[in-house]
Amino acid sequence: MATILITGGAGFIGSNTAEYFLNKGWRVIVFDNFSREGALRNRLWLESFDAPRLKIVEGDIRDFTTLRALVRRADAVIHLAAQVAVTTSVENPLHDFEVNALGTLNILEAIRRAAQYRRATPPLIFMSTNKVYGNIDTPIALTPTRYYFTRLRSGISEKTQLDFHSPYGCSKGAADQYVRDYARIYGLKTVVFRSSCIYGARQFGTEDQGWVAYLARKALLGEAFTVYGDGKQVRDVLYVSDLIRAFDAALKYIKCSKYISGEIFNIGGGLENTLSLLEFIEILRKKTQNPSVAYSFAEWRPGDQKVYVSDITKLKKTLGWKPFISVEAGIDRLFNWLRSAECTEH
């Protein structure tokens, strides 16, 4: 029976990932400091499974001693623990660096040193971000509801020049490159996923991160929210279960082939699953049957991209993966979860 260590395992993506691997028969170690909104609720939800194969450890990604001990027990590691908000990184760049860059280096060193105690080190999947590409220098145009690329027919590929914009972009970008380089220099089995917008059940979104769930919850509660920029900014969105299928595929592939070790993949919904904020507000009006969803506009925030769409061609070709859940189906699933009392209570 294999053991998987999930850092940030009580977060939105982490708790869904923990459930997935528990259902697959793995032992699961959830490591989290429970600082994020919703993390304690997700912990209670995981504990409700009453699964003897689940172990929850409270701790900080900056604690190398604890990480080293946990990594020794793991057959695979999915590293999701992070400081996730651009605005927070601008306010406190030192904390952002310590969590995202130093925390990731701690994981890498713990895995590298695990070679002293075992024949094979566990593979590592690292969750990076599209923010490593910064403000992409490519022509865009505008319709009444959205921005769009005029030349990039498939979206942003992994060959796009890196341009770390904002302290968050710098810390995640540094971590991203460390993960790649530890595969080259030390032979670790690593995969980097540069994600676009992930959404779904168990997402307790905030104004700074998790915008799909945040705006949906605000609309359900009849509360006003702020749109930063003009609302025409576009992202490709991916339902969380599709992301986790990519995790599983990468782990299976890296066990039997070194071909993807050190590889980087852009992951998101791709061109077929894009939304602008204004378009999403229209969906919210229909879902809540409220034609007057309340919102106001404010200035653009640092590092915000007017349009980002992932080119997922490499991931499709390499792992045979593609999104299964459409925007319409994913938002239906999200609303079904949000309508539960747990998610609409303050």
UniProtKB/TrEMBL annotation:
Indicate the segments forming the NAD(P)-binding domain, all copies.
5-333
SUPFAM superfamilies for this protein: NAD(P)-binding Rossmann-fold domains (SSF51735)
Concerning InterPro entries, the annotation shows: NAD(P)-bd_dom, NAD(P)-bd_dom_sf
* One Pfam entry name: GDP_Man_Dehyd
Protein name as catalogued:
CDP-paratose 2-epimerase
Write down the species: Candidatus Lloydbacteria bacterium CG22_combo_CG10-13_8_21_14_all_47_15
The organism's taxonomy opens as:
Bacteria, Candidatus Lloydiibacteriota
